Predict the structure of OBSCN protein.
Amino acid sequence: EPDVTIVSGLKDMVVFEGDDVTFRCQVSHENARDVEWKLQDVALQNNEMNEISVEKGKIHTLTLRKVTEQDIGTVTFRVGPHTSTA
């Protein structure tokens, strides 16, 4: 299995309370496994507040819905040993 690397990392975002925000990270290969999103070192699951998806096989997205002050912090995307933060 090829080593999947991060081609295009996360970008810092500034949003207003109550808005949605989307983070994108592009990886080198489709169907990447061992992928994880975190907010403030807490692993995120796909649910009504966090939408985690993959576009075109390589672009992993995380949308945080209706953000609050408690959502301020570092977002981390990890694939295997590689990470990107914003």
Remarks:
- The chain has one domain: 6-85.
- The first strand starts at residue 6 and ends at 8.
- The chain is about 0% helix and 45% strand.
